[in-house]
Amino acid sequence: MITDEIKIPEEFADVCPFSDEEFGVQVAHLVEEPMFRRVVEYAMPGVQYEAFKAKMLSLKGKDEFQMEIMRPYLETLVGKTTSGLTIGGVDNYEIGKSYTFISNHRDIVLDACFLNLGLIKEDRPTTEVAIGNNLLIYDWISILVRLNKSFIVKRDLTSHQRLEGAMQLSNYVHFAISKKKESVWIAQREGRAKDSDDRTQESLLKMLGMGGEEKSFYARIKELNLLPLSISYEYDPNDYLKAKEFLMKKNDDSFKKSQEDDLLSMSTGITGYKGHVHFEIAPCVSIKLDTISPETGRAELLNIIKTEVDNSIHRSYRIYPCNYIAYDLVNGTEEYANNGYTTEEKAAFIEYVDRQLDKVDLEVTEEDRAYMRDMIYMMYSNPLKNKLNVLNVKQ
After folding, report:
1. Least confidently predicted of 125-134, 173-182, 206-215, 239-248
2. Cα–Cα distance list, 137 to 38, 92, 153, 242 (Å)
3. At a CB cut-off of 8 Å and minimum separation 6, what does 112 contact?
């Protein structure tokens, strides 16, 4: 592939995916990690690790790793934990052109993995994936994700280092798009929107507009071919953990999640039931930029881009019965009782939420439980609320 024929500048050596030239050495380190072996044996019941190790060592690069290791694993995972994985709007991802997928964020691990699986099945190139180093709890995880076409977003920087880190990240994204001719995936905000009220952080767009060789902010942003992506999970296995986090923060403003909390969220998201999962690729933001003057002021331009990305994501949500049910429960209505869900589906969803709340490992009052229930209803109602807003449907 052209990716590995291009020399990677030294400034990106500590954050970029491993080149195929480095691949073998890094795999050799990875397969000797005892914890990696335990994870493989847990994630792939019945696997003979020595045979798996030999297969890993035989791989020639990242593309083979994705096709020979990740694809079959993810297909098995889809079969076990979802009722189906679909992807729409693929024609907006033109073959031969590199894009910056910018999306809402539901699952710490699987959003980008499922996207790439969907792209493989549609005969489209996979993306390089932005991942925060706060999730790289062990060195072997860092090796694994960089073998899987991920690049690192440094989260643990001091205030003096943040500008330098942002510039490095921005320059790498521009390098990947314009020189490596690779598409990339990045979430629209740092971390997941726990309440599913998805909004693009302006600071992310400012960061993306810092790098590149073009002179104007307009040109630097346009070079990235921003491609909004809407991710819709029917059920979120982490909904009860998010509700617990809402309660913890409500009771203690200083509450911060631990590494153990992140690990639990990752494992729960991977193994939990998700129902149907849908990805919808919206038209490129450059189409919108073509309609405005390159001389548009930076602040106005940022607002235009942010609005375009948010509206594209909201408009493209796949709405499930649980979203209609939650919307009516939040608003005390039965607006969608006849055309969004059945009485049986409503009863099943309410029962589902109660079962999820039973998993919360805290001593809670009835008031606390009611609060967490309301938070879960809000999580499931917000996608519909935002879609109605962008479609200008009266609420």
Report:
1. 206-215
2. 16, 36, 14, 20
3. 127, 129, 131, 150, 185
Q: Which two tokens stand for residue 38?
A: 């335990």
| % of the chain at pLDDT higher than 70 | 98
Amino acid at 326: A
Domain that holds residue 311: 2-236+272-318
Q: What is the number of domains present in the chain?
A: 2
Domain boundary among 259, 291, 318: 318
Rounded Cα distance between 101 and 185, Å, is 5
DSSP conformation letters of 15-81: TSPPPHHHHHHHHHHHTT-HHHHHHHHHHSTT--HHHHHHHHHH--SHHHHIIIIIHHHHHHHHHHH
Distance CA 392, CA 395 (A): 9
> Which SS3 state, helix, strand or coil, does residue 9 take?
coil
Q: Give 265's contacts (C-beta < 8 A, 6+ positions apart).
A: 108, 238, 241
* Nearest-angstrom CA–CA distance, 374 and 364: 15
Q: Which helix (H) or strand (E) holds 3?
A: none
Closest-CA residue to 97 (of 188, 5, 227) = 227
Q: Which residue did the predictor score with more confidence, 156 or 210?
A: 210
Dump pLDDT digits (tens) for 49-107.
Answer: 999 999 999 999 999 999 999 999 999 999 999 999 999 999 999 999 999 999 999 99
